[in-house]
Write a structure and sequence with these properties.
The structure holds two protein chains of two kinds.
Chain A: E1 2-3, E2 14-28, H1 31-43, H2 48-72, E3 76-88, E4 91-103
Chain B: E1 6-7, H1 23-53, H2 58-64, H3 73-78, H4 83-99, E2 106-110, E3 117-120, E4 124-128, H5 129-134, H6 138-153, H7 156-175, H8 180-216, H9 224-232, H10 240-244, H11 250-264
Parallel strand pairs in B: 2-4
Antiparallel strand pairs in B: 3-4
Helix pairs in contact in B: 1-7, 1-8, 4-6, 4-8, 6-8, 7-8, 8-11, 9-11
The chains are: A alpha+beta, B mainly alpha.
């Protein structure tokens, strides 16, 4: 499954367009990570637990978007975009969407 | 010249963005997981508290709790020369030769119709006046005092306080103080604590029985207090209630004491009457009206 944030894939030709596919996930870290992040807030620096959380969320959202594209018969998703929003205290949504296509 | 792409709109048959697990199943898994974790943490922290309590010397304890005023401390100061308090102190000091508590213990009385006694941190035993109305013999009173002294010897008062603090802090840390989740898992912790307290009470009973035998050379009067409690509240602490109670049911404790006496070969002879100074009606006594 090819993914790109451009409209075209160099060297490939889009033969079929299936429409928008998307993947999303809302995740929170366990209490231990929240406590660590709270301590880190005192001293400053990277909140590694939350960096990890968002990376995991992006990977999961992409996986779900690919699954949707595969169900439609696509072999690529073009025009991929990410967005995020805070859903609850300590929980964030990662939303990824794009256009499912078949390329040759 | 390539033909323009074909547009073939469609929707996926299965939406992977939505969980297909039943929410109740997920709730059950989460709740049991959190409860198991908390019970494990409470158990291990409880062991840590027990271990730490052994390192707190009576002197250190006195320093730690010097600022902690037992409710009614002013009343206790006024009853310093009360003949009943003096008699209780004398009895307790004599019992101390048998169980070697290693604490500078002080006994006081408190006005209450309840029959009970408490061991407070810092070495102060408080005897409720109702106990003197319930107990018929010196031996019975000695057993109750020896039981409280045993709590000091086993550091139970520190263990109990430490465990209470640990559990409160643990639930507040994990779920936020007074949260709904804490309320949900509190009964499970309560059961564990009650069972632990019952074990400590049983150990205190054992040492009190040995103290009684050492002091009087027999164990008559050891079950007197529990027999009185049993008569007073036939229904209280039975069945499930007994499981939650921090003190084992009176019947169980009487049986356990009798079994222990039998196994240890302790004889049971006639008891000595309660000292005259400790008898009588307390209502209207100077203690009750102390301010």
């Amino acid at each position: 499954m090819l993914l790109t944030n451009t409209e075209e894939i160099p060297g490939k030709r889009i033969t079929t367009c299936y429409g928008v596919v998307s993947g999303s996930t809302v995740r929170a870290k366990h209490a231990g990570r929240d406590i660590m992040a709270g301590l880190k807030n005192i001293f400053g620096g990277e909140l590694k637990g939350y960096t990890e959380l968002l990376q995991e969320s992006r990977d999961e959202a992409i996986k779900r978007m690919k699954a949707q594209a595969r169900q439609l018969g696509a072999n690529a998703v073009v025009n991929v975009r990410f967005s995020t929003s805070s859903v609850a205290a300590g929980a964030a949504e990662i939303y990824v969407y794009g256009t499912a296509v078949t390329v040759e | 010249m390539h033909p323009s792409p074909e547009y073939r709109p469609g929707l996926p048959e299965q939406n992977d963005n939505v969980s297909h697990d039943h929410p109740l199943k997920e709730f059950a898994v989460l709740l049991s997981g959190v409860t198991a974790f908390i019970l494990l943490a409470a158990w291990s922290l409880g062991l840590l508290v027990d271990w730490a309590a052994g390192f707190i010397s009576p002197e250190m304890e006195a320093v730690m709790f010097s600022s902690m005023q037992v409710s009614g401390a002013a009343v206790f100061d006024k009853q310093k020369d009360d003949p009943r308090r003096v008699e209780l102190q004398r009895l307790m000091d004599e019992l101390g030769r048998c169980n070697e508590v290693g604490y500078p213990l002080q006994v006081n009385m408190a006005p209450s119709k309840d029959a009970n006694a408490f061991a407070f941190p810092g070495g102060r035993i408080v005897v409720l006046e109702g106990l003197l109305d319930t107990i018929r013999s010196e031996n019975g009173l000695s057993f109750v005092l020896a039981h409280e002294m045993a709590h000091y010897k086993h550091r139970d008062h520190l263990r109990g306080m430490g465990r209470g603090l640990v559990f409160t802090a643990l639930s507040a840390l994990l779920t936020g103080a007074g949260s709904d989740i804490t309320q949900l898992i509190a009964p499970a912790l309560g059961i564990g604590q009650a069972r632990y307290s019952q074990e400590r009470e049983a150990l205190a009973d054992k040492l009190a029985l040995e103290t009684l035998h050492c002091f009087y050379e027999h164990v008559g009067g050891a079950t007197e207090f529990f027999e009185a409690m049993q008569e007073e509240s036939e229904e209280q602490g039975r069945g499930l209630g007994g499981y939650f109670a921090s003190h084992p049911e009176a019947v169980q404790r009487i049986d356990a004491l009798r079994r222990l006496a039998s196994v240890s070969g302790f004889a049971e002879r006639e008891t000595a009457p309660l000292p005259t100074v400790l008898k009588g009606e307390h209502i209207g006594s100077p203690l009750r009206h102390s301010k």
